[in-house]
Amino acid sequence: MIKCIEESVKDKRESLSFEELIRWRRISEKEMENLNKQLSKLQKTLVIINKDIWNKCDHKWNKVEGATMGDLCSKCCENCNLYNVRSLYTN
Length: 91
Description:
The protein is mostly helical. It has 2 domains: 1-56; 58-91, no CATH class. Helix content is 58%, strand content 7%. It has helices at residues 2-15, 18-56; strands at 61-63, 75-77. It has a two-stranded antiparallel ribbon with strand order 1-2.
């Protein structure tokens, strides 16, 4: 898929003038900015959701494969897939 996008962009760039390339860059930068804002909002939403899940789940802890004695996240809940570190999900 990335190769297809790269080929599409290559074809487009070759046919655009300098001014059109500048305009395209501005549009692309604005789109990236909007997507980054959207991503940030989604990350904050996930924090809230995980906090609620932590508080509502009847946790059943299972050892994380490969975890050692000193690992912070040595157990994961079978029900909600959150780790057994309360401070990750609560304030």
